[in-house]
Amino acid sequence: MQCPNCAFENIPGLARCARCQTVLDLEEVSVEPPRRKGRRIRVAARWRWWMKETAARVSHTIDRFLSAAFRPNVPAGRFRLRWLIIPGLAQRAMRQPVWGKIFFWGWLLCLGGAVLMIGTWWAPTLAMLAVSLHASSVASMWYHRRARSQSVFQALWRGLVAFVLLAVLVYRPLAWLGGRFLRVVPVAATSGPSSALHSGDALVVTGPWLTDPPARGELVLYWLQSRGGPGWQVNGGQNIDRIMGLPGDHVAYNADADVLTVNALLPPPNEMPLAELKGFPSFAVEAKPGQYIVIPSVASVQHHGENVEFTPQMARAASVIEAQAVQGRPVYRLRPLGRLGPLE
Fold first, then answer.
1. Residue 98's CB: how many other CB atoms inside 10 A?
2. Range of the domain at 274
3. What's the domain count of the chain?
4. Of 103, 142, 184, 289, which is most buried, counting CB atoms within 10 Å of its CB?
5. The dihedral of CA 104, 106, 112, 114: what is its sign?
6. Is 55 among the domain residues?
7. Exposure string (b/e) for 308-339, b if CB count within 10 Å is 16 or more?
8. Does residue 320 fall inside a structural domain?
9. Rounded CA gap, 110 and 113, in Å?
10. CA–CA separation, 293 vs 287, rounded Å?
């Protein structure tokens, strides 16, 4: 209690100040120790209970993991070929649920990460790790079924054989088959910051088995074939651009007025090409049967081994593609995550 005379802090319960002996007012002094409120006491008790339960669950999980890892129980004659389809099925059948979850979820996360990271060095790394987990699951089953007659070296050799067989006979054909329906294509370069696509974008593209004949204004993935004339050549490559003209259409660009017309009409804003038209020469081109017209957003021309600007003849050569050169239609942007969503 504070003394009203000298402001000295006294111990609660004293009748007079220890410094100046002034009489203290005992009615304002509380001699009961401070206590927690009821809610705080309940929160503290619940926290201690949660910590105790969590520690018990972690200890139980570790015990199950060690038991499944070092005391396998593999009945003879229970092998099934279907256990090899998905990593972890064999371990669950062998009464090793912890290892089964590790193989399955690790394989699933690596496979999904490889798809999301296509176009970066992470994609092949995660894909190889997914195949390695699948091979490890198969090798683990072989090892535990023949643990008495097989050395560790033989188990490692079987794991390597499983990795090669899975990569060549399973994952490679599945990747090819999936690419007939859908695939992920990274955008390597664009024509400029105003383009709808940017370098580093990853797009989901329909494969040839799901691709219908494109319409005017649609985005397509196509292969630009190398073409040339006397002393110059348009370098080929894989591009993503809009279809500006269908078979029989006439597309013209006036560089002086910066006007692009399709069949003598201005195209709608959502059907404008991705390419920056500034810098293109004036040209006019007509699509023959079995051909489409695009204005390539990324293309280079070599003239006697040196890069030069487009001429009307070069622009016409680079703007016409064959129908079989169309490889798919981008439908969804997968990366970056900030621009995730369907393409317009």
1. 17
2. 186-342
3. 2
4. 103
5. negative
6. no
7. eebeeebbbbbbbbeeebbbbbbeebbbeeee
8. yes
9. 5
10. 6
